[in-house]
Design a protein that fits this description.
- The chain has 317 residues and is of the alpha/beta class.
- The protein has two domains: 179 residues, 3-Layer(aba) Sandwich (Rossmann fold); 114 residues, 3-Layer(aba) Sandwich (Rossmann fold).
- It is built from eleven helices and eleven strands.
- Helix 7 packs across helix 8.
């Protein structure tokens, strides 16, 4: 293997993974190309050369130095063939794809349909890659959200108000559940659970009658909008509410130590796996050791143990 390419989505820890891939490859005499703007860049042939110096100083940076884009056109066969042509025209012997379900699905297409050697590295703040304990970016996203929540808690307590905090999570309640548990929140609304808005409002009124003066509700964006929940609570309880939508701050920020460490291990292992001839798989850590998972399994829907999380959140509030 003489030349590989790396393609990414964006979240904290991705740059650390790029750095690990590049420096591992160069240690073994393998040239590395970076694909700019994800699958769009692979389709359009937008490649840059990466060396040890080009990845210097990026370990602590969020996002991705390679930029990214949502390339819906990649799932049209004509554009897939164009992406494969880019790989062939640039004499690329293998591809490392760093990203979540969409990115890994694209990697599976390239490997299974066109025979391109591909290894994936799971990176998504929702931590929803199947059979992966912890994806790159998830730990940082929760910690960024928690830092904001701690500040909101100060205000909620001081002003004696109910706060509805909306976090990312279109189809997965991972961030919301983690945040509610770590932040000591009173309620959490996630896509995986039915929403008992009347029961929640009854709890708020009962708590208030016993002297509880502040309340924080975490809501995943895929379940409901914070402003809608706020309006319902005010209407049903008569209590004043405030809304905080954390938005894209959860995708950024300096990666935590854990994300940097995971990135170092997985970037290194991905190069080794690709070099040894494996393909159509992603790498992850199980009990601290790097292993591979077939992409066919990794891209299946992941089942989150929502009920046990929710039970613990409720008994601790």
């Amino acid at each position: 293997m003489k030349k590989i390419a790396v393609l990414t989505r964006d979240c904290a820890g991705v740059n650390a993974a790029i750095r690990s891939v590049v420096r591992t490859a160069f240690e073994q005499g393998i040239e590395v190309m970076g694909v700019m703007r994800g699958y769009d860049g692979l389709i359009d042939g937008e490649l840059v050369s990466l060396d040890r110096r080009s990845v210097s100083g990026i370990l602590n940076h969020g996002g991705t130095i390679l930029k990214t884009a949502r390339a819906k056109r990649f799932f049209e066969e004509s554009f897939q063939r164009q992406a494969v042509k880019t790989v062939q025209d640039n004499n690329i012997d293998g591809l490392i794809v760093i990203g979540g379900n969409g990115s890994l699905m694209g990697a599976h297409v390239l490997a299974s349909k066109y025979g391109v050697p591909v290894v994936g590295i799971p990176a998504t703040i929702d931590n929803d890659v199947n059979s992966v304990d912890l994806s790159l970016g998830a730990d940082t996203a929760v910690n960024v959200a928690l830092d904001a929540l701690d500040k909101i808690r100060d205000t909620a307590t001081s002003l004696e108000r109910i706060f509805i905090v909306e976090v990312m999570g279109r189809s997965c309640g991972y961030i919301a559940l983690q945040l509610a548990l770590a932040g000591g929140c009173e309620e959490v609304l996630v896509p995986e659970l039915s929403m008992d808005i009347n029961g929640m409002c009854d709890e708020i009124k009962e708590g208030n009658s016993k002297g509880k003066v502040s309340w924080i509700v975490i809501v995943a964006e895929g379940k409901a909008k914070a402003h809608d929940i706020s309006g319902i609570i005010t209407k049903k309880t008569g209590f004043e509410t405030r809304v905080a939508v954390l938005g894209h701050i959860q995708r950024g920020g300096r990666p935590t130590a854990l994300d940097r460490i995971i990135a170092a291990h997985l970037g290194n292992y991905a190069v080794e796996v690709l070099k040894d001839g494996s393909s159509d798989c992603c790498v992850t850590l199980k009990e601290g050791k790097p292993v591979t998972i077939p992409l066919e399994i990794a891209i299946r829907p992941k089942k989150l143990d929502v009920n046990s999380y929710y039970w613990l959140i409720k008994i601790l509030t």
